[in-house]
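so the lab meeting is tmrw and i was supposed to have these ready like two days ago... anyway. pasting both below. for each one the top line is the aa sequence and the line under it is the structure tokens. i havent really looked at them closely yet so no promises
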Amino acid sequence: MKEDFLHHVWHYKKFSIHGLKTVQGEDIEILNAGQYLQQTGPDFFNAQIVIGGQKWAGNVEIHLRSSDWYLHSHENDPNYDNVVLHVVWDHDTQVLRKDNSEIPVLELKHYTDPKLLESYNALAAAKTWIYCEKELETMNSFILENWKERLFFERLERKAAPIIQLAQETGNDWEAVLFCFLAKNFGLNTNGNAFYAIAGSLPFALVRKESFDAGNLEALFFGRAGLLDGDPEDVYPLDLKARFEYMSNKHQLQRVHIDNLEFFRHRPDNFPTIRLSQFAALYNAHQNLFSKIINCATVEEIYKVFEVQASAYWQSHYTFDKESTKKRKALTASFIDLIIINTVIPFRFAYAKSTGKEVSEELVALLQAVAPEKNAIVDKFRSFKVTAGSAYDTQSLLQLRNEYCSRKRCMQCALGLELLKSN
């Protein structure tokens, strides 16, 4: 049993509320169970409870065992000084306040229907992947769809948080913030942090100034990445190196340490050289990129914004000085989909939050027009008859698996609560 089950039982009064007594033998009447804030401090705030004929207003703390009070060192935390009732499943020790008065204890196991506990145990029984895998196929579709929307916006809130933070730090220079986060997503998982560091090391005013010359942008990006530090042979990297040295001196760019970029864990089309060139092409093509992605009305319009390709040298190279079969290296539809999912949609959400605009339906509609992601988690849900028709669905399912199923948070999950109720 986990504590969140007891939180659920107390919060929704899933126990017999008549004839309640403390373990000390005093009658209990619950006027208000309190606010379940799920934050630091007691579990339920501002409860109103009558104990032994005396009305109390204060907080309620819940544990599996009374001794958990001391296990969690609550006796030393002033946040727990106003606890008026200790709710536990098993009472195994006396708990005292600082003035040595005993905290009243309600032992829930005597008042909870055994069938509810059986349903919880059935839900929490070991499965091959997630607890409710066998029940997903028959889940009420209305509950599932509503929960998916909640999951989607939870995930969006998490993605938007660092965007909003950087916007505040830069005085709401949204173009500069987009530059950093787009760079990170162009670097994918392996090079994302390094690309973000490259973008953050360049004054965006300089990027904006040089954006009319794709070669200068490439020189800045490759130079900051440390890819021009050696002694190249081809004319193209020699030219980039000269440009970078000139701009570094002119704009007094300080040397920075960027982690070595990863090549060998990628397919060649995802090599950092190719992605940096495409990134330069994007900013050469659009001087007001943030405004454009904010104002795109359809996914098709977003695709057009990202219709760029690596420069001519990279059509026949993957690394400097080593020629390869000529191939046009444009951003693919699947890569643009990743940019839409991980950058465009979170940015539109973050910007809307900062300006007080409501765009929820608009963002859902945009992502429902994007193809579903392909990964092991989505495939596993499909095996349990939960299909994903769009990126909106896959983002919801990823949030469900990562933030609820993997953490065994069934009592905070709408599906888990529904199964508990139906059982």
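ok protien two:
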Amino acid sequence: MKLSRAIRPRALPVGAAAVLGALVLTACGTDDNTGLPGAIDYTNENVECGPEGSLLASGSTAQANAMEVWVNAYQANCDNSHINYKATGSGAGIQEFLQGTTAFGGSDSLLGEAEIAESERVCRDGGRAIHLPMVAGPIAIGYNLPGIDDLVLDADTLAKIFDSQITRWDDPAVQELNPDADLPDMRITPFHRSDGSGTTDNFTSYLHAAAPDVWRYEPDKNWRGKGGQAADGSSGLVGMVQQNAGAISYFELSYAYENGISAVTLDTGASEPVVATVENASTAIASGEVIGTGNDLALELDYATTAEGAYPLVLVAYEIVCDRGNAPGTLDLTKAFLTYTSSEDGQETLKEIHYAPISENIIEQVRERVAALS
């Protein structure tokens, strides 16, 4: 039985959302600790269990909601297996993986050449770190603007807002994009991540590609823009937007959906502005190309696409593992868990919590890489 049909996200209170970014995601039996509503039936006959034991991983907060559901589903079916995923941010996840303290790391940005070289000290038997794309989805631009439920912005305007060049909501540039809106004379308060973040890397990659004349900073996991305020983790940004009228920030769509936060519609240059939805993100992600070599499945995305119905502000969350030379004590459990997350059931679940499954041609390659891990 597929568990995905039973999942329906709801809004979380601010206090609960603030905890999520630092949460260690675990479950025992059929307990539901996802923060998602209802009595979710995690029993799934298609889960192939690995050995008993414990697995520690950390990283991307953008994939935390997906990882939470996967962990609960796996553990509901596999007695005495414990998967602990710490949603600490992509930067911390990569660092802990390269220190050899986790079985795999979650990251929304690609490792650099120096980090791949460093991974050769952690991966035994001549192995190296590879990227396994496991979950994708739109990055929502969430905002708190009383009385304004629909807001259109383009890349240039967003770049100016997040670089403190546009500072008020009734600025002419914002009004031009929203001619029918009664925009308030209110200060804009942009919030960005204080921690190293793959979501920041993807957001700034979009600004750099789609608004190159305005956003002159190179994409980075660490924030480079001027001004604004900072918060830790995606859940920290959610809390700041909820608590501050005039605030605007960026986080994975599932966070906006669960917390009832309005999201910007993007004017991409297509005939109609594009709404942040899983379907529109999938349209943009489908044009991504594998640029990794050997066993690596790193993808290159087109953040500046103007294709009809394509929402270009997207991210792909990767699980970072050794292609060979993984720690013998965790190898089999790592393979079993990632076999489930990349399975048809594991990917189908993502649609119900506002993530985009990885395209079939790519996820088939992920399954092959997971089966070959040694």
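from a quick look at the 2nd one: The chain has a mean pLDDT of 88. The first strand starts at residue 24 and ends at 25. will dig more after coffe
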